[in-house]
Amino acid sequence: MALWLSVTVLCLGAIGLMLVIVGALFSAIDALGKKRYLFGWLNFLFLPAIAYCALYWREAQYPARLTFGGIALLLLTGALILANEVL
């Protein structure tokens, strides 16, 4: 893989990971603000943030967009890395 492509893929992965982390923090704040304390405290583990955003999509649209956008970027990064290994 060319150096510029490797750097681009690395930046995509870093941005995706950052979006997942920030989305999980925002979903924790959103859940605690709406008195869903179990989800609020568990969202700091990142995996329940995905479940919270999926269950309460209408109420947590902003954290959901951050979290799901980050997951999409991470999947794209993984696919690009996998495609590079195969080719």
Automatic annotation (TrEMBL):
<keyword id="KW-1133">Transmembrane helix</keyword>
<keyword id="KW-0472">Membrane</keyword>
<keyword id="KW-0812">Transmembrane</keyword>
<feature type="transmembrane region" description="Helical">
    <location>
        <begin position="63"/>
        <end position="83"/>
    </location>
</feature>
<feature type="transmembrane region" description="Helical">
    <location>
        <begin position="6"/>
        <end position="26"/>
    </location>
</feature>
<protein>
    <submittedName>
        <fullName>Uncharacterized protein</fullName>
    </submittedName>
</protein>
<feature type="transmembrane region" description="Helical">
    <location>
        <begin position="38"/>
        <end position="57"/>
    </location>
</feature>
